[in-house]
Design goal:
CATH architecture of the largest domain: Alpha-Beta Barrel
Number of strands: 18
Number of domains: 2
Strand order of the largest sheet: 13-12-1-5-3-17-18
CATH topology of the largest domain: nicotinate phosphoribosyltransferase
Number of helices: 14
Shape: elongated
Helix content: 25-40%
CATH superfamily of the largest domain: nicotinate phosphoribosyltransferase
Largest sheet: 7 strands, antiparallel
CATH class of the largest domain: Alpha Beta
Low-confidence stretches: none
Radius of gyration: 25 Å
Oligomer: single chain
């Protein structure tokens, strides 16, 4: 079976078959009528700045989608934050890209949502290790998109092995509860010892300590078992058993410190959100975040024609005319017509992406991450999400 998991192949996306049916009807109608107007279209989520910022990403896939098409595209840089106005502008004959709209919006909408949620988690504990643990909540085919978005937002790593192959990064992680079950209650020390003997030396020795007994008891057993080789403990206590989770973490930390094990880290996971992380960041050393990232709402982008054969056009509720967006010195986001002066001291954000079907931008994940975190500081993103 050539496609056992029922995923849409890359060829269908590039050819424009990964589209809504009405775009195929549109092509047939326009070709029948002999019409293929020159247009300018813009991708937006909100027409005017809202003060609520999202992270823009997915742009590299869009560039690949449009390579070889007779269009010019300008777009925000990867990792830029925005709160209104166009994030992308496409100019060319309409039938060059009509069927690509569906895939274009998908490439931007979901990864931008992932990255925005990951940034919320990152800024909830800026001085802690924060890892992406959410790959199990999405279709395996898009796990690399999840993990890339997490890295772009400044997370320190992720758990998915195949995504790591694509991103040229090594996945991280230690042990699940299933490993503990395989050794059985009362044999936790055997499980941790076998793990220590089996995995590479550079793998952190993080013992899972909430499987059978209370977290403090298993933590102290892990210390006795692995001694100085123990790097940390992970508490993944299910929400139905947590009670005061902060108190549990503080108790574990206290008992470790009381016995001279200040160097043993406490790592928390299991349904964490930014509010929970903020409540724990002074007593825990690291966090694994899953569903908060993968369950994020997609950014509701849409594509609209704003100029047709040089004339201003728009549907009701949208703004006609080619626009520019700017970052102002005070960290604001400003939208203006492209043929008018921008705000004093404003930095134009739309940059060339494709010219005559050729990709004219290079992509660098590290640079995009630096841009994301710097822009988050400039627009006070953490405050905007509280």
């Amino acid at each position: 079976m050539s496609n056992p998991f029922g995923t849409v192949p890359a060829e269908a996306i590039l050819e424009g078959r990964a589209t809504d049916a009405y775009f195929e009807r549109t092509r047939s109608t326009l070709e029948h009528a002999g019409r293929n107007p020159h247009v300018v279209a813009e991708v937006t989520a909100d027409q005017f700045p809202t003060g609520s910022f999202d992270v823009f990403t997915g742009i590299e896939d869009v560039a690949t989608l449009f390579e070889g098409r007779d269009v010019d595209i300008d777009a925000l840089p990867d990792g830029q934050l925005f709160d209104g106005g166009p994030v992308m502008r496409i100019e060319g004959p309409y039938l060059e890209f009509a069927e690509l709209e569906t895939s274009l919006l998908g490439f931007l909408s979901q990864p931008s949502g992932f990255a925005t949620a990951a940034l919320e988690a990152r800024l909830a504990a800026p001085d802690s290790q924060v890892l992406s643990f959410g790959a199990r909540h999405v279709h395996p085919a898009i796990t690399a998109s999840v993990e890339r978005a997490a890295l772009l937002a400044g997370l320190d790593g992720f758990s998915h092995v195949a995504a790591g192959d694509i991103l040229d990064r090594e996945a991280g992680g230690t042990m699940p509860h299933a490993l503990m079950f395989c050794f059985g209650e009362g044999n936790q020390d055997d499980a941790w010892t076998a793990f220590d003997e089996a995995v590479p030396e550079d793998t952190p020795r993080i013992a899972l300590v909430d499987t059978f007994w209370d977290e403090v008891s298993e933590t102290l057993l892990a210390v006795d078992t692995l001694g100085d080789d123990l790097d940390g403990v992970r508490i993944d206590t299910t929400s139905s058993r947590r009670g005061d989770f902060r108190h549990i973490v503080r108790e574990v930390r206290w008992e470790l410190d009381a016995r001279g094990h200040e160097d043993v880290d406490v790592f928390c996971s299991g349904g964490l959100d930014p509010a929970t992380i903020r409540n724990l960041r002074d007593v825990a050393d690291g966090f694994g975040v899953g569903s908060h990232i993968t369950g994020a709402d997609s950014v509701d982008f849409s594509l609209d024609i704003v100029e047709l054969e040089g004339e201003l056009v728009s549907k009701r509720g949208k703004l006609s005319g080619v626009k520019e967006v700017y970052r102002t010195p005070d960290g604001g986001h400003h939208v203006a017509l492209a043929d008018r002066d921008g705000p004093e001291g404003g930095e134009s954000l739309l940059e060339p992406l494709v010219r005559d079907g050729e990709i004219v931008r290079e992509f660098d994940l590290e640079a995009a991450s630096e841009r994301c975190l710097a822009d988050a500081e400039a627009v006070e993103f953490d405050e905007s999400t509280d």
